[in-house]
Design goal:
Length: about 325
């Protein structure tokens, strides 16, 4: 396994946080999985160039520095424009975000409204809604960030968001084809390797890993490239538009795609809501809400579609820097 080379990237302009990054050497690997969810199929070979990646998800401390320096206002802090949501009830067009609110009894696992609530004034500063704060959570991942919020932070830092290919290659930590970022066993020798859900989701959280919500970003062991929390804690935005499946494997080694990006925006539209079609990006990594009985997406191959206008209490991001970037 290749060892990560650590570096620190501090852009010269503006007051920016000092963020540790690891060198991801690049190479050819088998992306996806044929044994889990349909959207992860088929396994196919992909080549990716080397890049630097943040060792951890962006934290509340780092995001606070960004907001203080730029005055940036996140999507969850802005009341929705009625023109963008035809037919929406006027009393619902207020600033807010989705917050995980576990029931105290078993519910139908097909009905996500049983554990997600849209709370007015919930945002990255108030992750659980009015009355909450990020006091004591400086080293936890920032949450309630929509795609444009993550992209704005990355641009300010002189970085970018990873493609799905870059993210998955980095998450595998040099273990091509392994089930998890650390190997084939979910909890080797009984040790939790990531912040995920223990118990029956969504009403029973045994918290045997020590956390019922997010955790500090360096609590769990890094993978082979020195990256923490690539699995669990929070889902992470990528720059790729959503597709319902992967492309077929190349017929010959000479035809393996290099640094591919996701499909077109039009193909990623979520048309389930009447009169509203929101494009979706790919999320990777799973979160502290992923459970064996509900969401086995605590694996590098796992992927999820997220509308770009949506923010929640379990989605964050991290940045990369490619060789051609300044």
């Amino acid at each position: 396994m290749m060892q990560a080379t650590k570096t620190r990237h501090r852009p010269a302009i503006g007051k920016k946080p000092d963020v540790a990054m690891a060198w991801i050497p690049g190479g050819t690997f088998r992306m996806g999985s044929d044994t889990h969810y349909l959207e992860e199929r088929p396994v196919h070979r992909v080549t990716v160039d080397g890049f630097h990646m943040d060792e951890t998800p962006v934290t509340n401390r780092q995001f606070s520095t960004f907001v203080a320096a730029t005055g940036f206002v996140t999507y969850a802090e802005i009341p929705p424009d009625p023109k963008d949501y035809p037919g929406a009830l006027p009393h619902m067009l207020k600033a807010g975000s989705l917050v995980f609110s576990p029931p105290n009894h078993p519910v139908d696992p097909r009905d996500w409204s049983q554990w997600w609530q849209f709370r007015f004034r919930a945002n990255w500063r108030r992750p659980y809604g009015p009355g909450s704060s990020i006091k004591g959570l400086d080293d936890h991942p920032v949450v309630h960030v929509a795609y444009r919020d993550a992209k704005a932070f990355a641009t300010w830092m002189g970085k970018d968001l990873p493609t799905e290919v870059e993210w998955e290659f980095a998450a595998r930590g040099g273990l091509d084809g392994a089930e998890f970022s650390w190997g084939e066993e979910f909890t080797p020798n009984g040790q939790p390797m990531a912040n995920t859900w223990q118990g029956t989701f969504p009403h029973e959280n045994l918290a045997t890993d020590g956390y019922t919500r997010t955790s500090p970003v360096r609590v769990f062991p890094p993978n082979g490239y020195g990256l923490h929390d690539m699995i669990g804690n929070v889902w992470e935005w990528t720059s790729d538009w959503w597709s319902t499946h992967h492309p077929d494997d190349a017929p010959k080694a000479c035809c393996v795609p290099v640094n591919p990006r996701g499909g077109p925006e039009e193909a990623s539209l979520d048309s389930r809501q009447p009169n509203v079609a929101i494009p979706r990006k790919v999320l990777k990594g799973g979160s502290h809400l992923c459970a064996p009985n509900y969401c086995r997406r605590y694996r590098p191959a796992a992927r999820h579609a997220e509308p770009i206008d949506t923010s929640t209490s379990h989605v964050g991001f991290r940045c990369i820097m490619r060789k051609e970037q300044p």
